[in-house]
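input
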Amino acid sequence: MSESFKPYQSIAEHLTISFNSDDHFTIREMSDVTTKKGDIENIKLTYTGAYDKSFSSLILNIKEVIFNKTHSDNIINNDYASYNNMRISYKIRVKDNTLFFLNKDKSEIHNFVCFKV
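output
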């Protein structure tokens, strides 16, 4: 962990992904940042962009990062802002009602409970 993040014990991220159409998505995120002293402060964000999906892969092209609530530490804010205009590629797997995001080596990165609406 870099020197900048030493005051923090953990960052717990809670994400909701909506696939709004055949090629656009929205991610709503709320993260709880816990200091080593046990204080918790949250940050709230919305990511928007386009996606490409094939049989076993998903590419997210994040076009905009919107801060709904910033953190008091600009290092945290800048870290999240760095996703602006980023392209992220995942391997994906669906099992029952769970969508798994995997890295290129097929290790799990995220998993999401899925609902079709």
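quick obs: The first strand starts at residue 8 and ends at 19.
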